[in-house]
Structure prediction request, 218 residues.
Amino acid sequence: MRLILLGPPGAGKGTQAALLSGALKVPHISTGDIFRSNIKEKTELGKLVSGILESGGLVPDDVTCEIVKDRLMKDDCRNGFIMDGFPRTLPQAEMFESMLGENNQRIDAVINISLDDSVVVKRMSGRRMCPCGKVYHVLSHPPREEGVCDSCGSPLYIRDDDREETVLNRLKTYHDQTSPLIDFYSRRGLIIEIDGDKPIDATFQDILTALGRESDGV
Ligand code: AP5
Prediction:
């Protein structure tokens, strides 16, 4: 199954992608995670994109598409993937379509998780991250012990771009450059609309139902 998760910052794309990856046994590919790990490792790519992420803008399309192309060549993508945060502009969507077309592949569905801007801003202030990749929220998805990851025991941290000013920039970027993709994929009959303002489990069940996968029992 080849899925794209669309939606504003904080809609729950990463949270749902991780759950879907477990249920559907295909990798969760997050361009944001790839950029953040390059920033952490201080690679050339990390140096190039660090200021862009900090400001809430977008990494250039050619750089982003090249990274996705490399990632899709890995063996674990043979049976599909869950794309979280890519594509994010019309040129990226067009490039992605031709990239897949070269291998006779196509997207099966695009899950558009919607959430009001006012909820986004509130939600982001409570997000806590673990270096191992787990994502928590102080209210809706707290760890068992405050500030500590349930899985690996590492201290949790706040993402640099979760400051309110940056969140507002990211929202503007989303409305200007990413939301036109809803039309792009609607015209291809691929959009599944999901309400992102329900509890995490309810949203997950809605997605599984829309994909006709209720029997996964997760
Ligand atoms: P990226 O990492 O993709 O950030 P984003 O799209 O802004 O999305 P987020 O990760 O902030 O939110 P999410 O929807 O995944 O929500 P989450 O599940 O964490 O990109 C970061 C940056 O990288 C971009 O700004 C850009 O600079 C660059 N970039 C990335 N991809 C790019 C591309 N293709 N092209 C160019 N540049 C690119 O949930 C949020 C919080 O809410 C968590 O605390 C979670 O626990 C909680 N939560 C989740 N679901 C619910 C729920 N249903 N109810 C209550 N709380 C919930």
Q: What stands out?
A: The longest helix spans residues 164-178.
